[in-house]
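queue> holo job accepted (dioxothiomolybdenum(VI) ion)
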Amino acid sequence: MNQTLFPTPSGTMGPALPRYEGRAKVTGDARYPSDVRLARTAHAYLHTSRIGRGTIEAFDLSAARAVPGVIEILTNETIGGEIRQMPAIYQGGYLADSAQPLGSADVAHWGQPIAMVVAETYEAAREAANRIGVTYRPHAALAADMDAAEASEQALDPISFGVGDFAAAYEAAPVRVDARYSTPAQHQNPMELFATQCAWEGDRLTVHEPSQNLNNIRFGLAEQLGLDAEKIRVVSPYVGGAFGAKGFLTQRTALVALAARRLGRPVKLVATREQGFTVSGYRAETRHHVQLAADRDGRLTALRHEGWELTSRADSVAMGAVSMTARLYACPNIIGRVNAVGADRSTPGFMRAPGEMSYGFAMETALDELAHALAMDPVELRRVNDTPVEPVGGLPYTSRSLMQCFDAAAGAFGWHERTQAPGSMRDGDWLVGWGCASAFYPAQAGNSAARVRLSADGRVHVSSAGHELGQGMYTMMAQVAAEELGVPVDRVTVSLGDTDLPPAVVAGGSSSTASVAPAIMAACDAIRRRLGIEDAPPASVMPAMEASGMGVIEEFAEARAHGQPPESIQGLYRGMALPTGGAHLPSRVQFALGAQFVEIRVHARTHEIRVPRAVGAFAAGRIINPRTAHSQLVGGMIWGIGSALHEHSEIDTRNAGYVNANLADYLLPVNADVVDVQAILVPEEDRLVNRAGVKGVGEIGVVGVAAAISNALFHATGRRLRDLPIRLEHIMST
Ligand code: MOS
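queue> job finished
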């Protein structure tokens, strides 16, 4: 074990155990949903639209049908009425978007699935899909992005709020910042592609699909196909990366299920990397207007943050993280506003820290601009505005360790050696810049259930239909049960990723551990009650088990998350288990917080940008496993580097298609771009947030990195770049 790979546990942290499923993964034993081999499988391939908005006038399927091995071609003309249109999650439904799969001849966006070929082999299906002829009638007016004349803007009432008198305070202030920022469309690009396999046995359907939300697929598909959800099983023991892209049911699943039913044999679809850009949601482009005002000591007197987010025509989606950026610092006069701008694009969705990344970039860069205007150290600016109470509703934070994070990261980074003037830290031909920013993410949880079985020989089995996305779910579940029952962790086995197991929250919103750990704890409580040792320490469980003469005790338990009403527990059994928390609770706010520090180097002649080191420190309540948590945070910080300097889904405004929908042209940080990334775990105890004391670490690592980089770039060059991604050509042209 290399101790430098993860921090030594401290405070209330649990042991840094190795990953439960690590051996299965590195030896290839772990079978992902597309690895499952079913007898007589037929292979599906999507054909996606090549226009942005319009109508299909005619298909020519003759050449496709002539390809040897083709069995079936589904289009809006051949599909029949077997798949119902159902609402998207934004209207209370299950689907990632509200389109009906192959529902009509209308094309709403580039890359929309308009046909699916099924053939004996993948190659035959692909060949036939490529031979499908389509005559389109494109709509004359196309809005590819927010700048298009045809784009439509709407303010969102639920995300519009204020306190105090912003306008008067802003006008009266001696120091002000007024700036606009933007972030581009980005795609999650998980390594594992969007795969679905469906197999029927009589009237029972099994779906093998990588998912962050198994029961969402089960119940959504039941509605679409008019089936009893009890007849559908969804299996996904491993997910090869998701990052929000596998959170909700997409159009492909019902098509594969329908084809498998028609053919009477299993059907397998693996969408291509390019198709992955439009078959699920993505991080939509955003724009921001931030106005800050402060007194000469740096105390904020007025703060206004307005955001615009691109969405589809069909679904009004906005992440609206102004609900957090307006609540991070003490300030008496605040306005927050969010607008959705509809365009002819696929419906956006969730991508790791969906709104926090982009809104955080805007707010945390604006704060750096304010620090510069005040000639104040940016860390000290955060310190004078630190607050135990959020400023909009006056609610207390359950815990807040923002400045502890700043101090820990600043110390490790060596921030005290920074000289304040832009351009003052030049090293030969390299302009050196140091920047920092806050990281934040709502601490959320949803309802979950779990089952725990204790055997007289000391073995424990724990199960819940949670999701292993690579974040460490198996390991966490084993650790919590071992700790509660006082058995060694190597005596614990875990089942997850199967709708036959007790239902769990969506693996989204960094909420899995905060939601499922309390359910496991409740099941262990029930075991202790059965043994009549309710309040005894874990070490007395096994002696009591032996004394009881019982062979096995198995208990099922539910845990309802704080802020969820009693009736919400029913939703758990209908695939409706969504997390809440953050700024959306009536009596308190609960955020995980952190601090990001970055050094960048800009070459004085070529403008090449390098990030030689990044240091983050994070306080997220109890850390169950410092090894997996650390790995999540480092991964998030690397995403942050990508979000600032590399990632950009580039749009061809003529057809609203993505021109770089592949991993050669969609730039991501690689090893040479990521030299030294350090994530510090700041011990934090939060007894309120949930029974496990866990805030979650899945997404906070990405938040604030882009601002720290843009702030460092200003420090290096004196140039303030407010539009992501920041590339060398942008430095040349300013
Ligand atoms: Mo995460 S973007 O909430 O799956």
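queue> DSSP finds 17 helices and 27 strands in the chain.
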